[in-house]
Amino acid sequence: MKTIRWGIIGCGKVTEKKSGPGFQKADHSELVAVMRRDGELARDYAERHGVPKWYTSAEDLIQDEEVDAVYIATPPSSHKEYTLLAAQAGKPVYVEKPMALNTEECQEMIEVCHANNVPLFVAFYRRAMPALLQVKELLDNNAIGNVRFVRTVHHKKASEQEKKGDLPWRVKPEISGGGHFFDLASHTLDFLDYLFGPIEQAKGFADNQGNLYEAEDMVSGTYVFQSGVHGTGQWCFQSYKNEDVNEIVGDEGSIIYSTLQERPIIIKNEQGEREIEVVYPEHVQQPLIQSIVNDLNGIGQSPSTGDTALRTSKIMDELVAEYYQRKKV
Q1: SS3 33
Q2: Full-prediction pTM beyond 0.90?
Q3: CATH architecture, range 4-124
Q4: What 3-state DSSP class applies to 196?
Q5: pLDDT tens sequence across 234-255
Q6: Which of 1, 32, 172, 234 has the smallest number of Cβ neighbours within 10 A?
Q7: Hey, which bits of 88-198 come out as E strands?
Q8: Prior bond of 98 cis (ω within 30°)
Q9: What fold, for 130-280+312-328?
Q10: Which residues contact residue 78 at a Cβ distance below 8 angstroms, ignoring those fewer than 6 apart?
């Protein structure tokens, strides 16, 4: 197998533990270059993580002949730009989630990668995490019978930073695509797509209840999967606590799990309930990174691609569409 040599564009917080070391620890994978506009920060990251090269220009990193594939870990507003540059250079792309600012940008990224015959992967890494794959295994083994519906309740406290008006980029739609819904709910919606297949119909209601920023902070949605499973979700980012719970209900029981929190999986039925312990890997993206490296070497297929992430982007856009339409009026 060939060793895939990676370059990272945007070596910020997410790359410190969640992803960066995974490129070094995955089999047949090597991190050879990083890029950040601030040269001192780029050099510091390279030195601390044992990366031989650092750049202040994304184009210079992409053109490096020793970089085989590119991981884009910048905010969504630059995902399309860097994906197109990498694709036009003939290099496979692994891009952070959300995939881009909107569905249209996602579609363009897919088309350009296809035209240049390069694969496009997206960091919906829960599709490959052993902890959450236990949920899929339970469903595959008919642990709760025929699935009827799934419900999600996710709420989060406003940060002190947000209350002071020092807004993070994640609640600036021109940078992130929307509010925390796009950053966090995307993981849940994408994993549900992995469990039940594409969502066929979706209807949403979004609002701003806290008035701390312009983006939505409350989203309620209903949707129906092509498989016939129904779903509901409520996401509130002006609550009194942080909680993330999903319940999949079948005709013989239910499965309760968290998309974002390291909590036990609970299986309930008429006989009672039991728990399955959940342990996250040290570097949560490493299992997905390994699947991508294997895919690039012709072994299997990675579960998170541009095509699957496009579906998630489309549903998020549909759930908040009326809110942003009102904002334009």
Answers
A1: strand
A2: yes
A3: 3-Layer(aba) Sandwich (3.40)
A4: helix
A5: 999 999 999 999 999 999 999 9
A6: 1
A7: 93-95, 120-122, 147-157
A8: yes
A9: Dihydrodipicolinate Reductase; domain 2 (3.30.360)
A10: 10, 72
